[in-house]
Amino acid sequence: MHRVVVVAFPGVQSLDVAGPAEVFAGANSVMNATGADRAAGYHVTIASLDGGVVTTESAVRLDTESFASILEPIDTLVVAGGFAVWRHRSDPRFVAALDDLIARSTRLVTVCTGATLAAVTGALDGHRVTTHWARANRLAEAHPAVTVDADPIFIRSDLPGRHDVWSSAGVTAGIDLCLAIVEHDHSTEIAQEVGRWLVMYLRRPGGQSQFASPTWIRQAPVGPIQQAQESVIDDPGGDHRVAALAARVAMSERHFVRRFTDEVGLSPAKFVSRIRIDAARHELERSDDTVASIAARCGFGTAETLRRSLHRHLGVSPEAYRQRFSHAADSRTLIQHPPHTESSSA
């Protein structure tokens, strides 16, 4: 079996550990249910420096094996993150033991601030990696030999003669990354099935920005600017030029732009673009309408304008996005009942 070791430590973020472990266990369940070769599945071990019970930053307690007990070669080493990473990277014994695990691994995966731990061993030097957007600058400053890109939700950096490095942004992005690993190791169908039973809203491409969702857009306080925001969200395809928005809330254009930018953190044009992108994504996932129809309905005017905007924002074309994330495609299930997830920890 493919041996996966997930690195934990006191103060680890519990989801950074549990998310990847559940994805790999779910892949085993799907393969078992569909008659796939069990030997192609994943054997998951959660390990810490000295083994035993490790308490996470949220007080969840994890039963772990010790680093020293991991004797076999490691196919995939997953280094989890958490607020405590800076303390552990200052522990020479922890760093030396982690360096040994990395040296015996074929594929290195970092989740969230786990990149901070891997970086101190030198394993990420020369690689392009991502991490949680709020910790990216600190990682880049501490490790100038590492190219830190704070935008994507996950990145694969495969340099000749080096580790195959996969890194993800914060917490739940580790699930997206591990689903991509399952797809790489096995098939799109298996990865989609695992994502469906984990009730993932959608399985996101690695190139998608950490800031792609409108949940990242600040809502203005109650008042005219919030009213303008809501008018855009309610009708993405409407006339949302600055003059129209300002008139809608009875403000001068200059005053409106200044207030909007101060309260939302984006210019009106950038806000409208974000909302239209999200509306187009929603339509591509749920509708069989043509790209041209969706473009017109979401305010892009032409299919080509939508194509350029989506590629600039998410790194994919409308056609590729629909092919990968269409809910119609997801309706073709591999199994007709939730897979029974058995523990795969050693």
UniProtKB/TrEMBL annotation:
Q: Which InterPro entries match?
A: Class_I_gatase-like, DJ-1/PfpI, Homeodomain-like_sf, HTH_AraC, INH-QAR
Quote one Gene Ontology molecular function term.
sequence-specific DNA binding
**Highest taxon of the lineage:** Bacteria
In this chain the HTH araC/xylS-type domain maps to 226-324
* Keywords, sorted A to Z: Transcription, Transcription regulation
Q: What is this protein called?
A: Putative AraC family transcriptional regulator
